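Run log, item B.
One chain of 200 residues. Sequence copied directly from the ordering sheet:
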Amino acid sequence: MSQATAPNDDFAQLLKLAADGDSKAQQAICEQYEQQVRIVTRVLLGPLLRPHLDSMDIMQSVHHSLLAGIRDARFDISSPDKLVALACTLVRRKVARKWRIHRRQLRNDLPNSNDSLEATLWSLSNHEDGPAKTAEYNDALQQLVSSFTDIEKTMLERRLEGYTTGEVAAELDMNPIAIRVRWTRLRQRLQAAGIIADWV
């Protein structure tokens, strides 16, 4: 029994030291979730969003939020697993927040459009430069976005906000398998339109 509880006792002591400002304890706390957080961050950003969002900035923000929360006793962290889960949740929230800000800026990049989804797809596309090609692609993109159903628009919006397939399915009250089938079809349509859809 004592052997089973010892790890939790050690973790509780580590949290206490970190809350008291012990730099070595704080570093040890960060090391427990850092690798998993890096993986989650890379998955959320994908190859197309990384140029727009700084992964190291997100990591540092997670470190700051967690250590501040530990210091102020704002989090219920009773085990290393809960620490990792909390860190991953913070990553998803921070990526979503930063991406929403970036997407608002993208609206100015797409002429005559107030549709944030359209502006986002424009930024992720393989459109060619030049006035004629740009205008042609703009028309094609507007037609593509107008062809999306409300469900498809919600799926794409939520995906860019960092939602998982399960969370999207829950919000839309749909079976996750049905959502995956729709993802496949959406990928094909996006790729056919010249939009790299690795992030979907």
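Observations after the first pass:
- The chain has nine helices and no strands.
- The chain has a mean pLDDT of 78.
Flagged for discussion on Thursday.
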